[in-house]
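Researcher: Next sequence.
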Amino acid sequence: MNVNKALAIRISYLLVKHKMSKYRLEKASGMSHSAMVHIFNEDYKDIKLSTCIRFARVFGMSLAEFLDDPLFDNLDLEIE
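Model: Next structure:
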């Protein structure tokens, strides 16, 4: 699994948990619609740390809390 796929799965889980739409996340995070589409279509190989921080803030979490998920513990996580 690559970093983008892990991020898309994590965001999807948090959207359900917070009863939030992708559109609302897009607006609250300041991410462009095309960037959100690329993330959820897993088009990117790597995601910037600043992007993760934006999402964490929207969900009211620290970056550490946002990344505290077994998805990111995978030693085989592709980072290229």
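Model: The helical segments are 3-17, 22-29, 33-40, 49-58, 63-67. The chain has a mean pLDDT of 90.
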